[in-house]
Specification:
- This protein has 296 residues and is mainly alpha-helical.
- It has 10 helices and no strands.
- α1 (2-28) packs parallel to α6 (148-169) and α3 (65-93) runs antiparallel to α7 (176-204).
- It starts with a helix and ends with a helix.
Amino acid sequence: MLGNYLIGLREGLEASLVVCILIAYLVKTGRRDALKPVWAGIAVAVTVALAFGAGLEFGSQELTFEAQELLGGSLSILAVGLVTWMVFWMRRTARHLKTELHGKLDAALQMGTGALVATAFLAVGREGLETALFMWTSVRTSTDGSYEPLLGAILGLLTAVLLGWLFYRGALKINLAKFFTWTGGMLVVVAAGVLAYGVHDLQEGGFLGGLQNKAFDISETIPPDSWYGTLLKGVFNFQPDPTVLQVTVWALYLVPTLFFFLAPIGSGTSKRVAKQKATTETDEKAEANRTAEAAG
């Protein structure tokens, strides 16, 4: 339940922040007339996300066992890929998200009502589809017949809506860059478990081999039906008897992903880009000075 709460909170807060930024900008700039198109775009985005999630849930029930395992495993891997991209993107752009959205909204205001609806839809829709997909895969992997996983995700979304409202009212101020770094790191751990379970689905469906090749089996030490086994399952998608392939994929994803995610933002490519930019500016200044001296 805790893992699904984190997913709902982390994913829902992004969408809530986007909505708050769009609405607050229109209100502060005296463009309340543009609120209706923006709300319409947001409503369409939420509807599409809900329809997508419902389609996944009810559509998969009509499939054969093998087809269900193939769909579940494939979508789990896709969800992990999307969420991994999202947490890296948000960590790098959290500081500049407001400026980026303001620029898009300014352009949409000049183009008319349709552009406003499309801007709001695209800004919120991407978050909604990612949330629906990852929540479906996570609930599917951790469900044990109870409603706790879904309840955890819903509570996370409700918390995100409350935090978004508090941000809008100016009652809550936190360092968003640090918040998204910490929650993003925890979400990477959750995603590693979803990825391992997706591989297990493909093995059960016969699309990957090695189902009987267990890495270890500690079911007697950590029974799946115990409270701590249920907790580990709900938070980390822990399985007491994983296959060798599951453990291998889990480690190959988690270790390098966490390493690069927790590395300073100014390292690697960013430093090279900054160095190239500084070099270019220096060359341009030198060229300008030479031109000025020649003209003199």
